[in-house]
Amino acid sequence: MRQIKYTLLGAFIVLLGLWAVAVTVPNAFHEGDVVSSAKVSENFQALADAVTALEAKLSEVQAAQKALPSSAGVLAYAYFIDSTPSYISYAFNSTGGAVSATRESTGKYRVTFENLDLSQGSLMLAVVDATKAQICTNSPITSSTDTVTINCFNHDGNAVDTAFYITVVR
Predict the structure, then answer these.
(1) What is the pLDDT of residues 51-90, one digit of tens each?
(2) Which one of 67, 88, 107, 147 is least enclosed by Cβ atoms within 10 Å?
(3) 89 and 136 assigned to the same domain
C-alpha cells in the first residue's frame, strides 16, 4: 500500500512538473501588489492559449495513433441496419480509412474499407435477424482491393435485404 501511495505521488509530481513547463503566465502577483484586471486577463489568456496548444497537440497524436497499424494486425468492422445498408449504424477501421456501403439491389451490397487490403485478411459475416433463416456471403477476393460485394439470401435462395455485421481481421 505504501509503494502505491509513493508511486501515485511521484506520478502526480511528474505531471505537475510537465504542466509547469507547458504553461507560463506573464504576471506574478505578490502580497501587497495592486492587481489589475488587465494583468489577470493576460494571465487567463496565456492559460487559454496554452490549453489550446496542448489540445491541438493531443489531437495530432490521437490522429496519428489511429493511423498506425497494430502489431497484432488490422481490424475493421461495420454494422448495417435493416434494409438500408448504406446507413452504417457503427463502423471502425484501424487503418484510419473510411467505411462505406451502397445497396446495389435487393440483397446485394458493396462495402468498402478504405486503405485496407481485403485480400490480406479474413472476412466474417453475421446476419442479425435470428427469426428468419437468412445467410450472407461475400464475393471471392483474389486480388488487392478494399471493396467486397455481399449477397444475402433467404432459405429459398431468394435475394433478401437484411441487417448484418461484417468484420475484417488480419
Answers:
(1) 787 777 777 766 665 665 555 577 888 888 765 656 788 8
(2) 67
(3) yes
